[in-house]
Every structure is written in structure tokens, then in C-alpha cells.
Amino acid sequence: MSGMQADFTDRPGVGAARHWMTVQAGELVENQRVIQVDSEATIDEACEALIRHNIQSVPLYDHRSQTYVGMFDLHDYASYVLSKRATLMGRGNSGSSQEGMLSAAGGGMRRESISPLARKALGDGGRRSSVIMVSDMSTVNPFYSVLPETTVAQVAMVFAKGAHRVAVMENERAIRGILSQTKVVRYFFEHCGVGQPDAADDSNGGGFITRAEDEMLDKTLADLGLVTRDVVTVRPETPVLQALSLLEQWRVSSVAVVDEEKRLVGNLSVGDVKYLVKDRSLINATCRDLVQAGRFLQGVYEGKDRAAVFSVRPQATLRYALSKLVATGAHRLWITEPGAGE
Questions:
Q1: Is pLDDT above 80 for 116?
Q2: Long-range contacts at 301-310 (CB < 8 A, ≥ 24 apart)
Q3: How far is CA 180 from the centre of its chain?
Q4: pLDDT in tens, 194-210
Q5: b/e map of 162-183 (b: 16 or more CB within 10 Å)?
Q6: Contact, 180 vs 164, CB < 8 A?
Q7: Which residue of 70, 196, 262, 312 has the fewest C-beta atoms within 10 A of its own C-beta?
Q8: What are the distances in angstroms from CA 218 to CA 21, 159, 281, 314, 315?
């Protein structure tokens, strides 16, 4: 399979009281339905699957070899869109204003920087190219696979390298499930007494947290050093192409949308990229247009509209931040000062 397989050899002790981080990855994906896409599907069909199932990546399955041959991630699609635009610029089919959009991002792709794989995928305009040709085009959020007995502690080490999710393999030809950061956070919150202060138990035979961990949950984000000033931002009127370049340049999954007074007014994430498939005119639109279109399509597919952005203050406790992540289903929280956004 395309990607990297982590080499984990440690195994939790048999009969020992289980700390929450010794829970095995296979337990967290039990009975999970794995969404997959045929490796010969078009890029549009793969993106449609992402939208329909509200996911950000999907494994690619080759029916001829009966194996998984790659992973299609929204960062791959963002790289594809940028490469396609750079190709058009190289052919002289785009205006100088679009070239300025990429240059202003400080990391726009030049035609000579496009990989041979991208050139091949874009040879016919990309409309009928198979999704496998752009799989793993982006180096952001690399794909990892792990064994079912891999512990949550070991998975957390993979997440620390920049991955947002890992594939839990049943065997070489079957995926048991996809384990994401969000799933681990939700498990930690729901099964370890995180929502109930003073619920730590050092003698429980099931998953539990220690007293020290429980005390850490009541420290503020500022005290824990989780507040950073290095935030990538855009304005509502920033062109979508420039925002995509920033996602790739800084290897992040989201940028904050701020107004002229630096107040947080929205959020544009790599999850919004898939909506470019539903309306290609959005490629030449602004961040405001893309975020609004995404919220509308979420309503169509999920029957509800989600808030565009969630935030907390530096003085919030880690327990509160985790609670908010779980309650809202958000993938991230922006940390804001008073008056900078709600």
C-alpha cells in the first residue's frame, strides 16, 4: 500500500490494569464501515464520495489485485488544483491576475516545479484522470497504516508526526477501520471520565487516567504552552487559490479568516476544498464565497448547518477545550483573545 507503515513492537502487559493509552487501535474501529473508492474512479467521483460521507480521505482499492494501492486525501486534491492552474498559466491560458494570486501566497506552484505524475494527470485537463494518478500528490498529512494491536499511545506518536488519521489493517488486503485524531479525542473524553472532574482511578481494571493526568486537564491552555502566535490567516476577500497555496506552503489543514481588525470571522480548512468539485467557479472566488458554499452543501447533505468557526480563550482549561471539541464535532479550535472572535 502507498504510504508508510509504522514499526511497532511493544505490546501491553497481559493482566495489567489498563491505562487509557494501552487501549488497542483495533478496539476503537470495531464494526466501522470502511468507505473506499475504486482506484480507476475519476477525481470527481472520489471527491463526490468524500462529500457524501463527510470524510476527508478515502482508501483506493484495486479490484484486479484485490489490494489497497493508495489513499486520496483532500490535500492531494488541493495540490492537483494548484498544479492544474500552474499548468494553465504555463500554457498562457490564464490572466495575470490569477498569476498574482499564486505569487502573493509566497508559495505558489510554478510549472517547472510540477512533478511528472502531476503532468501526466493534467495531460488531458484532468477531467477524466483516474484518482490514483493524484493519490499522495501532496506531502501534507502522510498516510500511515498500523496493526490492530497497536496501542493508542503508539498511534499518538504517529499523530505527532503530522498525520491526522491512520488505517488499522486487518491484514495486507483488508482495512478494519480508519482511526482519526477526532476518534481518539472522543474516546478519551467519553470513556476516561474527562467530563467529570475528580473521576481519575489508579486501580480500575478498565481504561482510566491517572491523578496527574486529571490535574493536567484542569490547567489552562496558556499554562500548558498550547497557545501559539504563529497562525496562518487570510481575509474574507482573499482568493481561494491563494488560500490553497498557504495550506500547502505551511503544511496546515486550516487557515483563520480574519477581518481588517484581526478579529476571527471564519475558518477555511482543507475540508472545504472538496466543494470546488460541486462548483468549479469557486476556484476563482474568494474565501468568503467558498466557506458559504460549503456551509450550504453541508445543509443539503446533512440536513443541518454547522457553525463556521469555534474558539476558546487562552484561560480555558484543557478539559473545557476537549469538551467543546467533542460537543461541536469540530476538528480544531482557534484560541482567541477577548474581542478577537467568539
A1: no
A2: 301/51, 301/52, 301/54, 302/54, 308/266, 308/267, 309/256, 309/257, 309/264, 309/265, 309/266, 309/267, 309/334, 309/341, 310/334
A3: 9
A4: 655 545 554 444 457 88
A5: ebbbbbbbeeeeebbbbbbbbb
A6: yes
A7: 196
A8: 19, 23, 47, 13, 11
CA dihedral sign, ordered 190, 191, 192, 193: positive
Distance CA 84, CA 131 (A): 14
Alpha-carbon span 138 to 72, nearest angstrom: 10
Inter-residue contact 54 to 301 (CB < 8 Å): yes
> Is residue 282 a contact partner of residue 290, using CB atoms and an 8 Å limit?
yes
- The CA distance from 275 to 291, in Å, is 9
Q: Which residues of 58-96 are buried (b: 16+ CB within 10 A; e: fewer)?
A: bbbbeeeeeebebbbbbbbbbbbbbbbbbbebeeeebee
Q: All 3 cell numbers of residue 278?
A: 460541486
pTM of the model: 0.76
At position 1, the amino acid (one-letter code) is M
The confidence band for 19, taking pLDDT boundaries of 50, 70 and 90, is confident
Q: Indicate if the alpha-carbon torsion angle 186, 187, 189, 191 is positive or negative.
A: positive
The three cell numbers locating residue 194: 474527562
The torsion defined by the Cα of 260, 265, 268 and 272, in degrees rounded to 10, comes to -130
- DSSP reduced 3-state for 56: coil
Rounded Cα–Cα distance for residues 145 and 70 (Å) = 11
> Could you give the residue ranges of the DSSP H alpha helices within the chain?
25-28, 43-53, 74-90, 96-104, 116-121, 152-159, 181-191, 211-217, 240-250, 275-278, 287-302, 318-328
Rounded Cα gap, residues 129 and 42, in angstroms: 6
Alpha carbon distance 128, 131 (integer Å): 9
DSSP 281: G
CA atoms within a 13 Å half-sphere pointing along the CA-CB vector of 32? 21
